[in-house]
Specification:
One of its GO terms (cellular component) is ATP-binding cassette (ABC) transporter complex. The chain is of the alpha+beta class. The protein folds into 2 domains: about 5-235, P-loop containing nucleotide triphosphate hydrolases (Rossmann fold, 3-Layer(aba) Sandwich); about 240-370, Nucleic acid-binding proteins (OB fold (Dihydrolipoamide Acetyltransferase, E2P), Beta Barrel). It has helices at about 40-50, 90-100, 105-120, 135-150, 165-185, 195-200, 220-225, 230-235; strands at about 5-15, 15-25, 30-35, 55-60, 65, 75-80, 155-160, 185-190, 205-210, 210-215, 240-245, 250-255, 260-265, 275-280, 290, 310-325, 330-335, 340-345, 355-365, 370. The strands form 4 sheets. It has a 6-stranded mixed beta sheet with strand order 6-7-8-3-9-10, with helices on both faces. A 5-stranded antiparallel beta sheet has the order 13-12-11-14-20. The protein has a 5-stranded antiparallel beta sheet with strand order 15-19-16-17-18, with no helix packed on it. It starts with a strand and ends in a 9-residue tail after the last strand. The mean pLDDT is about 90.
């Protein structure tokens, strides 16, 4: 296992900055996922760790040793690529043993190690096969076995599952997680797929526009996003524009584009002032749907306060569209002319149809708020 430290890492291509001021400590034996959209700098960061790209500035250390100026073959790292990069003229076993051969490992030891790695990735018995005859999932397992065979300090994975179909990709995510737990090596995994990152990662590093903007455990980055970009990138949400109309010692009151005044409870004085424009985030999992809206409408658009002091915000709207997704049904709802969506899951999918009037409720404490610059508001 090895610890990796990236310090103020930058990479420029002419006038274009691909990676800017990236600093992070990657712990011994952890699986860190670098997650972000295309062009966010995650693959470039991985290639600099591998020694395949030279940083414009900054430092890379592995186990306390500065490897910034070292070439790829001088570092005890191994990389699994998106296209697998298997040699078509070699057998599966020869592919897995290739790195060992380059390191002058004796032939019999190479064979034993390669066969052991194929067993580990559930490809035992395929050693004599032509890799061109393998399925995508099998090729990915062989590429993984080849990278693990050289016993690297760090395994680097550059979107290795992106060429697989959905079901196989999900199966490989679980297998890759199990392999990581088995070999106990440091993995750095690049992906643009949020579900993949949440399935695999001990921690997730979220990148955008070349910057590493938040690092944390999956639950941390999802439940406590550092800014609006992360909130919108990690799953679906309703963004609602609003303006603070008054502030008390324990809440901020906002007038929204939905036509309702909503309450944002706070543990202390909210860090906002009257007149501040805010974007609210309402994730579908915090919303509940009440079908008999007419009988229990939100009178005068005032929000109820429960006996325990908590605040339930509510709006009334009309179902516009129903999207059936098997275990989930998504409802597009018009609230005073503004669209939002809510969902029902599991057996509680209901039988709502277009034109039905519904009430959508949520706890005020389940709302996240962001300033116009995207920064998070403390409530």
């Amino acid at each position: 296992m090895s610890e990796i430290t990236l310090s103020e890492l930058e990479k420029q291509y002419g006038d274009t900055t691909a990676v800017e001021d990236v600093s992070v400590d990657i712990r011994d034996g952890e699986l860190l996922c670098l997650l972000g959209p295309s062009g966010s700098g995650k693959s470039t960061t991985l290639r600099m760790i591998a020694g395949l790209e030279e940083p414009t500035s900054g430092q890379i250390t592995i186990d306390g040793i500065d490897v910034t100026a070292q070439s790829a073959y001088e570092r005890n790292t191994s990389t699994v690529f998106q296209d697998w990069a298997l040699f078509p003229h070699k057998t599966v076993l020869e592919n897995v043993a290739f790195g060992l051969k380059m390191r002058d490992v004796p032939k019999e030891q190479r064979r034993e190690r390669a066969e052991s790695m194929l067993e580990r990735v559930q490809m035992g018995g395929y050693g004599d096969e032509d890799p061109t005859n393998l399925s995508g999932g099998q090729k990915q397992r062989v590429a993984l076995a080849r990278s693990l065979a050289v016993n690297p300090d760090v395994l680097l994975l550059d979107e290795p599952l992106s060429n697989l179909d959905k079901r196989l990709r999900e199966d490989m995510q679980i297998e890759l997680r199990e392999i990581h737990e088995d070999v106990e090596e440091t993995f750095v995994h690049v992906t643009h797929d949020q579900d993949e990152a949440f399935t695999l990662a001990d921690r997730i590093g979220i990148m955008n526009e070349g910057k590493l903007i938040q690092v944390g455990e999956p639950t941390e980055v999802y439940e406590n996003p550092a800014n609006r970009f992360i909130e919108g990138f990690l799953g679906d949400t309703n963004f609602v524009e609003s303006e603070v109309v008054r502030v008390t010692d324990d809440a901020a009151y906002v007038e929204t584009e939905l036509g309702y005044e909503l309450v944002l409870p706070s543990d202390g004085a909210p860090d906002v002032a009257e007149g501040t424009e805010l974007t609210l985030s309402l994730r579908p999992e915090v919303l509940s749907i009440e079908q008999d809206a007419a009988a229990d409408a939100v009178e005068g658009h005032e929000q109820p306060v429960l006996a325990d002091g908590s605040t339930v915000n509510a709006v009334v709207g009309t179902v516009e569209n129903v999207l059936y997704r098997g275990s989930t049904v998504r409802y597009s709802v018009s609230v005073n002319g503004t669209s939002m969506f809510a969902e029902r899951t599991g057996t509680n999918t209901g039988a709502l149809t277009a034109g039905d009037e519904i009430r959508i409720e949520w706890e005020g404490t389940d709302v996240l708020a962001f300033r116009p610059d995207g920064s998070r508001v403390t409530l």
